[in-house]
Specification:
Helix content is 33%, strand content 25%. With 506 residues, it is of the alpha/beta class. The protein folds into three domains: 182 residues, Class I glutamine amidotransferase (GATase) domain (Rossmann fold); 188 residues, HUPs (Rossmann fold, 3-Layer(aba) Sandwich); 96 residues, GMP Synthetase, Chain A, domain 3 (2-Layer Sandwich), CATH 3.30.300. Strand 10, helix 6 and strand 11 form a beta-alpha-beta unit. Helix 5 crosses helix 6 and helix 8 runs antiparallel to helix 9. The longest helix is centred in the middle third of the chain and has 22 residues. The structure holds xanthosine-5'-monophosphate (XMP). The site of xanthosine-5'-monophosphate has 15 residues, from loops. Pathway: Purine metabolism; GMP biosynthesis; GMP from XMP (L-Gln route): step 1/1.
């Protein structure tokens, strides 16, 4: 397969996904992974990703120069191109203005990477530094306003300043395919059906006749993990579903129907709503609420898992982006929100871990789910934060507010499905403000809460725009919420992008 060395670009997971979509195995490793470890994997090619730093900086992220002498093809993208230039004796300078967004690439001398690409094409740039002089043995293959494609074909080293992996680079797929197949001669060895078969065999082998427990949340990852493991070991899998009381309306009932009845999973449902609500009494700070909910979840799960006798394994729906993020060597970025993933459990628990999805990207997890027969609407659910409605009820949480919000949210989500809009937005929900305003209903004056409808479109949840939902649709949900949900007399629509706003309100 192809190894991608991660220098911190927001696009490096995308490189991995693109290559897997071509049917070729790819792996993202931290840039400082020792060469020996890279070689153990017998890569057919190595990609040096983009990254935020400058090769001329004092503590720049570097690799061992020997990487270029392994006779394994190398593709340097953005920072990867500057790094290659820098390490092999060329010069990188601070750009005059930098380039962000679309640019015209003009090919001056084609090579195996650019084979079949038009002489002029649109590419996506995002850089400040630029290559000034080439290392010995390299030629210029393409220009934008700056040197944008270089190579040393006899050493199979190829570099581009732009990002071939993003869809804005019109002929990027062709370039990626040229690298993966024509230059690296990678075998097509990545197929999800094979993955399912081998993983099931591995689970059987590893687990033997022992018991496995799993925290089922109803979200995509834990559900797919549960169904996959159940396929391997049947009722040796015991799921625990904790109802925090902060879930979407009827979530527990639906999980029991979808997975308990339909897939025959053994699920122990724990109604812990009172515990959570009482712990949340008097707490209104968002981070404090996250902490309280996270700790309480761990406490409940810990108690319940110990009641299950003889369980040896703890299964989790960890997926590849979680793995990449946890191994990443990026500098400490400031904590905006502590994304306390409830479902992430304490390490001191006395179980062996079983993580059958840890090699898969999200879209691959969905495909596996569909292969296993989980219905489309379950496999394509929007993400739901661990602290749940606890961070969508601004300020202090109580039972009444939870009920009000559940009702309103259920109307909104139901209408999105009914109008074929659910799959067109990335995450949608309702927020309940602790603000009351005056309204009129019949002849009565009302004084009730304000609900905010939020819907975001995004690919990576790092940046997002608000969904351009049709006015008529917004009118329908506003009317329905105000008429049907006692406690809300005003609905607002959130038209903030991220940044500077975030997707959630807390
Ligand atoms: P923000 O609000 O930071 O959200 O733009 C980005 C994504 O993260 C989710 N989110 C959370 N998920 N625990 C979670 O498991 C949390 O505390 C949490 N806070 C935000 C949010 O729903 C969105 O998908």
């Amino acid at each position: 397969g192809i190894i991608i060395l991660d220098f911190g670009s927001q696009y490096n997971q995308l490189i991995g996904r693109r290559i897997r979509e071509m049917g070729v195995y790819s792996e993202v490793l931290p840039f400082n992974t020792p060469l020996a470890e890279i070689l153990e994997r017998e890569p057919s090619g190595i990609i040096l990703s983009g990254g935020p730093s400058s090769v001329n900086a004092e503590n720049a992220s570097l690799v061992d120069k020997a990487l270029f002498e392994l006779n394994i093809p190398v593709l340097g993208i953005c920072y990867g191109m500057q790094l290659t230039t820098h390490l092999l004796g060329g010069k990188v300078k601070k750009g005059e203005k930098g380039e962000y967004g679309k640019a015209k690439l003009q090919i001056q001398k084609s090579n195996a990477l650019l084979s079949g690409v038009s002489r002029f094409s649109t590419v996506w740039m995002s850089h400040f530094d630029e290559v000034e002089t080439l290392p010995e043995g390299f030629v210029i293959n393409g220009m934008t306003d700056v040197i944008s494609a270089i190579s040393n074909e006899s050493k199979k080293i190829y570099c581009v300043q732009f990002h071939p992996e993003v869809s804005h680079t019109e002929e990027g797929t062709r370039m990626m395919e040229n690298f993966v197949f024509n230059i690296c001669k990678s075998p097509k060895n990545w197929k999800l059906t094979n993955y399912i078969d081998t993983t099931i065999a591995e689970i059987k082998e590893k687990v033997g006749d022992q018991k496995v427990i799993l925290g089922l949340s109803g979200g995509v990852d834990s559900s797919v993990a549960a169904v996959l493991i159940h396929k391997a070991i049947g009722d040796q899998l015991q799921c625990i579903f904790v109802d925090t009381g902060l879930l979407r309306k009827d979530e527990g009932k639906k999980v029991m129907e979808n997975y308990g009845e339909h897939f025959n999973l053994k699920i122990k449902m724990i109604d812990a709503s009172e515990r959570f609500l009482s712990k949340l009494k008097g707490v209104s700070d968002p981070e404090q609420k996250r902490k309280v909910i996270g700790n309480e979840f761990v406490a409940v799960f810990d108690e319940e898992s110990h009641k299950i006798e003889g369980a040896k394994f703890l299964a989790q729906g960890t997926i590849y982006p979680d793995v990449i993020e946890s191994q990443s060597v990026k500098g400490p970025s400031s904590v905006i929100k502590s994304h306390h993933n409830v479902g992430g459990l304490p390490e001191e628990m006395d179980f062996e871990l079983l993580e059958p999805l840890r090699e898969l990207f999200k879209d691959e997890v969905r495909k596996v789910g569909e292969e296993l027969g989980i219905p489309h609407h379950l496999v394509h659910r929007h993400p739901f934060p661990g602290p749940g409605l606890g961070i969508r009820i601004l300020g202090e949480v109580d039972e009444d507010k939870v009920r009000i919000l559940q009702e309103a949210d259920d109307i909104f989500i139901g209408e999105l499905y009914k109008n074929d809009l659910y799959d067109k937005v990335s995450q949608a929900f309702v927020v309940l403000l602790p603000v009351k305003s005056v309204g009129v209903m019949g002849d009565e004056r009302t004084y009730e809460y304000t609900a905010v409808v939020r819907s975001a479109n995004t690919t990576d949840f790092m940046t997002a725009t608000w969904s351009r939902l049709p006015y008529e649709f917004l009118d329908t949900i506003s009317n329905r919420i105000i008429n049907e949900v006692r406690g809300i007399n005003r609905v607002a629509y959130d038209i903030s992008s991220k940044p500077p706003a975030t997707i959630e309100w807390e």
